[in-house]
Write a structure and sequence with these properties.
The chain contains 8 helices and 12 strands. The two termini are 22 Å apart. It has a single domain (11-321), classed as Aldolase class I (TIM Barrel). A 12-stranded mixed β-sheet has the order 7-8-9-6-5-4-3-2-1-10-11-12. By secondary structure, it is an alpha/beta fold. It is globular, with a radius of gyration of 19 Å. The structure holds S-adenosylmethionine and iron/sulfur cluster. Iron/sulfur cluster binds at residues 20, 22-24, 27-28, 65-67, 95, 117, 318-319.
Length: 323
């Protein structure tokens, strides 16, 4: 459906859990609040919300978290969402620590894409930034996903004085594996330190210095606001997602469903509609609640001017929202 600012809302990020096997410093450095399973949407409830949302024009779903694969049965959920009429694409985002266990099943059920988060190619830095992760596991996942024929993307957050120097090595994975590598500007959400953000215009300048044949790629790669660049004769592309230095709110097409059932129209505000009370009501009432949340979508995020949000700036961790 179209929101109050004329934007077509057709993409929903669905967080299936706040929990994660890693502790990324900018996301959930101290772990997550203990939330009982009774407060978390069941798979049946998630599927019902996705079905109602699809009737309102949501046609693409991203399964996220926390780490989606720490929730048992995640593959079955993906399969059920894929079977909903009107849902054209279901993709997943993961830290890649356990993807090797699921990649065959994901291919069998026809997952439409896998995004793997990878911030560094140095094992010590990897363990530092993720709190406990093993680089070789995530790299293996990248290889398996790229080799599986499933559309694969790497998501990288660059931070000043941490991994900025790895921009070329990480970007080169796009050409090595024929996949997309996206540099995402750090957003001031949760535990993230906005002072460490590396601006994507700077990243682009560096990339063009290294690969002067880099040229814009106008083709559509996915659900979102990434701007892509490619080199003639290579398969993979480099994407830039510039929430801070290239605000894309005018084209925002998404809403977010938290694992506890809040439908969030904008990442930067804590506002949204709690859908749980509507799960005991009719499908039409549930759809009305979803419609209302979409119509409350603000014109733009408030990252550069948090005062606009008043008491409603988002203070939750990114792992509680789903990225
Ligand atoms: N655990 C999965 C993963 O890491 O891909 C899915 C959830 S994670 C919250 C989704 C994405 O959000 C990751 O790519 C992560 O790097 C990104 N992220 C976390 N905090 C962020 C922030 N402050 N700004 C921008 N992206 C962030
Ligand atoms: Fe976990 Fe993903 Fe957050 Fe890292 S970014 S702590 S992997 S949810």
């Amino acid at each position: 459906m179209v929101d109050n600012y004329g934007r077509l809302i057709e993409y929903m990020r669905v967080s299936v859990t706040d929990r994660c096997d890693l502790r990324c410093r900018y996301c959930m450095p101290d772990g997550c609040e203990k939330v009982s399973m009774s407060q978390i949407l069941t798979f049946e409830e998630i599927v019902r919300i996705c079905r109602a949302a699809s009737e309102l024009g949501i046609n693409r779903i991203k399964i996220t978290g926390g780490e989606p694969f720490v929730r048992l049965g995640c593959i079955d959920l993906i399969k059920e969402i894929k079977a909903i009429d009107g849902i054209e694409e279901v993709t997943v985002t993961t830290n890649g620590q356990t993807l090797d266990r699921y990649i065959d099943e994901l291919r069998e059920i026809g997952i439409d894409g896998i995004n793997i988060s990878l911030d560094t190619l140095d094992p010590d830095r990897f363990e530092y930034i993720t709190g406990r992760g093993k680089l070789d596991k995530t790299l293996r996942s990248v290889e398996l996903a790229a080799g599986s024929g499933i559309k694969t993307k790497i998501n990288t957050l660059l931070q000043k004085d941490f991994n900025e120097d790895e921009v070329y090595d990480i970007a080169a994975l796009a050409f090595r594996y024929g996949i997309d590598v996206r540099f995402i500007e750090m957003m001031p959400v949760g535990a993230a330190d906005a002072g460490t953000v590396v601006s994507n215009p700077e990243v682009l300048q560096k990339l063009i210095e290294r690969w002067p044949d880099l040229e814009p790629d106008p083709s559509i790669h996915g659900n979102g606001p990434a701007v892509y660049y490619k080199r003639p004769g290579t398969k993979g592309c480099i994407g830039l997602i510039s929430a801070m230095h290239g605000k894309f709110c005018d084209y925002c097409n998404r809403v977010r469903l938290t694992s506890q059932g809040q439908l969030k129209p904008c990442l930067s505000f804590d506002t949204g509609t709690d859908l749980r009370p509507y799960l005991s009501r009719t499908d039409d009432e549930l759809k009305d609640a979803i419609r209302k949340a979409i119509l409350e979508k603000p014109e733009s995020h408030c990252f550069s001017n948090p005062d606009i949000a008043g008491d409603h700036a988002e203070h939750r961790l990114m792992s509680q929202i789903g990225g």
